[in-house]
């Protein structure tokens, strides 16, 4: 975490929102000299700052300021992401939206712990994530219920091709990826599967836990859209191979990919959380789909990395 006592790092529009919020939330005035600005590590798309100012009897008052990253429009539509965040806030999911400014927004500061890479392997926490993900998938979100995955992959592939030299494109085999995407779509589109509102980026940094209540909440919905259930779970399993706080955050250790028993436990927790009986056939079918969708997850974030 990088610290700075200077509020100048925060845009003027955001500072005006902080001044207004202090009066609305706590009946307090903002002394700029008293504010502590702490940049939080781990955000890959945006700059995220925790803003703290003194409260009564040692109770610090905190909000979070998110400044949107530059050039992210190639990855997702910012207007759609803002609408998703506002809708999630109304559903009582994640942090509340406290204010918006042109370059970002002010959010409620969630007083919970962000998960670490080892947390994903903890059986209790993994079960909590599974049940929370099922709840997320059951949300009634607006918009067409169309799968976004294939269109997004093709758009990112074209963007990657436009940014790479001929030599780089050959080295990365970009000329063949279009055929591989088409093959995967052909294989997977003929399968009967549930399409739901997916998080699409379920890495440990986007999952928080309240230690006292053991409740889990999902945050950061930039990439959220409608997709098959199996894709969202496959992406989460792939994220178990990542450690974004290591010296080599881009290197995945696939010895940490969950084995079949670990996958099965996650699916049983996911499927049974609705109160329905879970059949072995249902679990095995989903396991097979997840194995295939893990390939699309590699394409998804591989292309993201090239474009980034």
Automatic annotation (TrEMBL):
- Report the domain of life of the source organism: Eukaryota
> CDD domains given for it?
ETNK_euk
Q: Which residues form the signal peptide?
A: none
Gene Ontology CC: cytoplasm
| MF-aspect GO terms | choline kinase activity; ethanolamine kinase activity
Q: Pfam families attached here? A: Choline_kinase
List the GO biological process terms. phosphatidylethanolamine biosynthetic process
Would you identify the family this protein belongs to, as annotated?
Answer: Belongs to the choline/ethanolamine kinase family.
Question: Which PANTHER family does the entry mention?
Answer: CHOLINE/ETHANOALAMINE KINASE, OS01G0183000 PROTEIN
Q: What is this protein called?
A: Choline kinase 2
Q: Which organism is it from?
A: Aegilops tauschii subsp. strangulata
